[in-house]
Amino acid sequence: MFRDVFLKFDGNDTITTQEKLFKDTQNTFTIEFWAKPESTREIDKESRKGISRTIDQRFAITPVFGATEEGNSSRAGVGVSVGTNGVSIYEHTIDYLVTTLVFETIINDWTHIAVVYVNRKPNLYINGKLVKKGLRSRKNILVPSGIFGGVEPYGFYIGCLSEIRIWETARTEPQIQANKSKELKGNESGLLGYWKINEGYEAIIHDSTNNNRNGIIEGAQWNTSKSEKLLNEDMNVLFTFFVPSGGVETLNRQRLYALNKKGIKCDFLYSQSGTGLQNKVDTSIFITNKDDEIKDIIEKGNYVAIVVGSDLMLLKKLRDLGYQGYLIYEIQGLGFNKEYASDFLKNHAYPIVNDYCDAILYPQTPHLIEAFENYFPNKKKFCFHNCFNTKDFNYQVTPKKSSPIIGWVGRLEENKNWKDFLSIGYRLIKEDPSVQLWMFEDNTLSTPGERLAFEQKIQELHLNNHIKVYANQPHSKMAEYFSIIGDSGGFLCSTSKVEGFGYAVLEAMACRCPVLSTDSDGVRSFITHNVTGKFFELGNINQAVQEGKELLSNITLREEIKRKAEEHIKTHFSPIKYGENFLNMIHNLQNVKK
Length: 594
Description:
Helix content is 28%, strand content 28%. It is built from 13 helices and 31 strands. Strands 1, 3, 8, 9, 10, 14, 15 and 18 form an 8-stranded antiparallel β-sheet that branches. Helix 5 (338-356) packs across helix 6. The radius of gyration is 25 Å and the shape is globular.
């Protein structure tokens, strides 16, 4: 393997390209890539028919369901499972998920894998050598897949991947041998897709062919070996935001813990006071919007980077005040719908971000990824999961409540969509009058008009005896509340229209409290429907009620969701990963300025 930049997959990660199935490339094609697996795969028997009981596969290339969209059961998507104990090739469509080639061998280092289909029959090459011929498919049409990393419930890849190439031709052994360790140009004859996977910091892998079939990364992490060079350097970073409240205040406390572990000193600057200041942290927190005080802070702080949260005008102000370090513009969420996000970036953020900052930072939220790719194609962009310290915030054992509790966390404003929560709660209470509603809010951030509408809605739905509102609770207390809700047989209900990164959802999952949520983009990193939580369509109260009733009544599903959700948060949002990603971002910026 000739690269030192690649992606690491932990067992629930995927990359989805703009061509989920290469439908026009049929029966004869080549899939090749470099892999370093770190787990065994389940070994199924070779077969040409039926559905195997496929589990625990390590799908580097996902066998996408071939009948998708048109329902064509004669077309099957091809996937490749790679483990430390060998390679298997799968084909997938209606009533058909079979292993047409199984090769057992030991793979414990970087290995080149090539699967060559010739007239519906697979051949496997390892490190350029033909090692196995498989069974000819029973299906009329075989096509390569454009999703990498795996699929529920059949299995996900664990290990590292690089240099994925898909050809519309059957590559020969000499061709594979001659080119497996070479970087291609992207214009080679017959090359359909070529993902070098060498970006090192973005949430997208770019297709180097003219087809532009870029892939969105969901969960997989860039290796950060280079960033370790920075561990012994003194580094101070300042994070700024408008007010210490809500998700950003939570994020700042979480990354303080993560980055301190990496030797980075973090300070925080807020332009006004807020309720989050009750959550004490051991660092400097500045509250000011005065130019002379801000100038004094940045001159004394010796900050290698300042991360500016949302405040566009502060970017210009910091440069005008003489700051010469790295300015990183951070967005965790943008407005109450995706259209607003695009309009804001296009008409407001574009000139300021281009002129005054060095890079953009945002979570792996699909609408944010798409918007920043569209409007800032040439600006340095870094996109990785936020972090969460489950050692300090986790499930608490408390006396069990006799009635199920449905929780909600947010502000009384349009995007958090409290009206739908009250409607869902009302319907569930009609089904079971013992149900209680607990709402947690920051009451300093609502308008008088919204507060009045909230109180009127409670009266209208006759919820007074079923609802309890908790205002401005300390963050440390929320772990206990989420645990109580989960143990009561209830769940957290998130009704947001759009989320950049839904910390309340993540926190509930970490405390074994199941979650029912709108598909608000920013929670996709947490929730897989009926696996780690439940989704309902925004505004569809009937669907929300049905999904909620199942969470309340289906004990087996509920407990499985709780278990998998807690495990998912611990695995994918660790402070260690965040620290590595952050260091890698600074290192990348330093390389640019050299």
